[in-house]
Every structure is written in structure tokens, then in C-alpha cells.
Amino acid sequence: MENKVWVFAYGSLIWNNESFQPLDTIKTTLKGAKRSFNKKSIKSRGTKSKPGLALGLELGGECLGAAIQIYEKHLPELKKREGGYLPIETPNKSLEVIDDEGKSLKCLVFFPDSKGKNYLSKDVNIEEKAKIIKEGEEGDNGNARDYLKEIHGFLQEYDIEDENINQLYKLVFG
Q1: Residues 17, 62: contact at Cβ < 8 Å?
Q2: Fewer CB near the terminus (10 Å): N or C of the chain?
Q3: Phi, psi dihedral angles at 90 (to 5 degrees)
Q4: Which residues contact 156 (CB under 8 A, 6 or more apart)?
Q5: Model pTM score
Q6: Which Pfam families does the record cross-reference, listed alphabetically (predicted)?
Q7: Cβ pair 134, 6 in contact under 8 A
Q8: How far apart are the first and last CA of the chain?
Q9: pLDDT of 112-135, one tens digit each?
């Protein structure tokens, strides 16, 4: 029998996960972190000369999302996709993934590497992030503007309120 793992998804992994063949998907809340566009994208959603921004997490607050259950054999592929993000097991002293019934779920959460060269510190304000998104060039998977639009649309579709994303969206698209 193959081992299964839960992975917390807070961005495109929620809807772009077919290659991992999810066995189950449930609504969950990550306690202890919130969404943040805090990682420069120099390949996927931008270039080295004009990076875009990718969605990550930062400590503090909470984040509504989904937990997807996959076979453990898909983890190497997932880790490759999430390059520059560190898999962190929950629950731990800072983070906990809770299902709709209030139960804690053992789950992997991919966090941006705060020591990585493309990580944006908390000191970068939302206006600066909006400027980076607006000025970023096309990467292998498009640009950061379309990525933000996609994430904003998904959150609205699933009735997930995220003030940080809503504010950033207003700054980029007026």
C-alpha cells in the first residue's frame, strides 16, 4: 500500500495539481501564516532583468485554502515545481492546518525560503510589490499581472476573503 500525504495549497496548487493525481481535496485553514506576494519570479512569472512576483506565505495571521492528498511518490515532482519553497511539516509550534471540523491535519506547507536571494522581506510595502508586478516581464508561465488576476479570481470564486490580495489587486488593476 502506498503512503499518502496531505499538502496545504494556498495558490495555484489548488487548481493546477492534475499531475499529482489528488486523491482528495478538502477546505482547510492554515493558522499562523497568511498569503503574501513575497518571492521574486525570475523564470516562471518574470525575468532576471524584470522579475515578477510569486505568491508565498509569511508568518502571522491565517490563510484559508485547501489540503490536497497525494501519494508520497509524487513529492519529488511537487518539490521540483515548488523550487525555492521549503516544505514544512505541520502541526508545529508556529503553524497548524485545521479542517472544517476543527481537527488538526498533519500536512506539508511550502514556505518561501526567507534566506533565498529572491525573497522579499516584510519591509517591502504593498505599493512596491504592486510596482514590481506591473513592471515584470513575461516568464515561462506568463506574467505576474495575469497570475495575480488568476489568484484573485479563484479566491472570489471560492468565497475566500483575503484583504492582502484584494488590496494588491486594486493597486495593480485600479
Answers
A1: no
A2: N
A3: -120, 160
A4: none
A5: 0.90
A6: ChaC
A7: no
A8: 52
A9: 998 989 999 888 999 999 999 999
